[in-house]
Amino acid sequence: MKVIGITGGVGSGKTQILTYLQKRTNCRVIVADRVAHELEEPGGVCYEQLVSVLGTQILAKDGTIDKAEMAAKIFGEKDLLGKINGIIHPAVRRYIVEAIAEEHEKGRLDYLFIEAALLIEEGYEEMVDEMWYIYAKEDVRRERLKASRGYSDEKIDSIMKVQLTEEAFYRHCNVVIDNSRALENAYQQIDEKLGEDLCQK
Predict the structure, then answer these.
(1) Residue 31 pLDDT > 70
(2) Which of 87, 101, 104, 110 is spaced 20 to 30 Å from 93 by Cα?
(3) Domain-by-domain residue ranges, the chain?
(4) Pairwise CA distance, residues 98 & 75, whole Å
(5) pTM of the predicted model, to two decimals?
(6) What CA–CA distance (Å, rounded) separates 175 from 193?
(7) Is the domain defined by 2-26+110-195 classed in CATH 3.40.50.300?
C-alpha cells in the first residue's frame, strides 16, 4: 500500500481530485478536516477539552459544538487559537497514524490518500510515501472560489495570505498535478502517474 499526501492551496480543486482517485483506485481517503469534525463530536477525544477551554456557550442546544460559535470565540485571539490547535491537530495526527498502521496490517488497499491543509506544516511528510501538490494558477483559484463559495476578494486574500507559497509546495512535494485547466486534463495526469506506479510493481 502506498500512502500519498494530497495538498495544495485553497481553490486548487483537491476535492474533485480525491473523488476521481476514489473512483480510479482501490483506496481509502482520509480528509483531515472531516476527522477533526468527528473528533469534536460528543464522545470524541477533543470534545471535553474544547468545552473546557472555550466554555459551554459554544454548545448548541443538542450538546454538539456550534462551529460558528467556536470560530467567533477564537477569532483574533492568537493564544486561544494556539490552544485549540494544540488540542485538535495532535488528535487528528494520532488518528491518521493509527489508520495507516491499521490499513497496512489489513493489506487490502493499493493506496491511502491523506488530504490536509497543513500536511507540510504538521510534518506529515515523514509518514507518507509521496506528497502530491494539486496546483492551479491563482487567478483560476480565485474565480473558482467566487463561483463555488461566493467568496469576496478580501476573504480570498485573507486565506491565501496564511497559506504556503507555491515555492514551498514545490519544494516539499514529489508530484505536481496541474489543475489550472479542465478537470479532464488533471485526470489524464493522474492516470499517467498511476500507470507509472503499475509499471513499477
Answers:
(1) yes
(2) 110
(3) 2-26+110-195
(4) 31
(5) 0.90
(6) 9
(7) yes
